[in-house]
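User: For my dataset I need records formatted as: sequence, then structure tokens, nothing else. Please produce one.
Assistant:
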Amino acid sequence: MPAWNELFRWPEFIQIESKCDPRILVLADELRARGVRRVYDLGCGIGRHVILLARHGFEVFGSDISHNGLKYAQDWLQREGLKASLFFADMTKIPCPDNFFDAIVCRSVITHNTTPNIQKCIHEIHRTLCSGGLVYVTFTAPECSDYGNGKEIEPNTFILANGPEAGITHHFATQEEVVSQMSTFRTIDLAYSVHTSPPRGNLPTYTSAQWIFKGEKP
């Protein structure tokens, strides 16, 4: 998708995307305590969480639809002296065998989609995750600043008209929707997070709102 390739050339966006989510650091400790070996970062971008997970000693896999993001991630791994398997893939068609991963992380990725494609992605996560494997997925919530920005193509789904992610599909999921969509997994935790960031460079004040689902494949 050209829009993501362009974003991953933008220094201000790369600076934001380089910062790890502290919750993934906590999750990495939990995964290690569970004896997890093979972890997949679905929609890895420039590789911030691939790097974090590789530092923790996991066998890490990452995929994205941005060639520029994947190249940045590969160069970052090389600079750090770390290894991970990176590949180009759409989230609705994961080119990996059934029951392949011990854990799958999908942060700020899955809702860049229409509802049918979100369901396809969840099916692929379920298919490629081993029994007893852990899944960590975040869903953008309607309280996000981008809600209502652009053309609504289905309920709660917009192609953004303004901002750095203009032209990209964004779906905004309610709590009830998340529970329904993730019903094939056993829920361990479902948390809500909202955060407002001050203006940075060309980026205005922005409120992010997410549902954070952590579950286990039965």
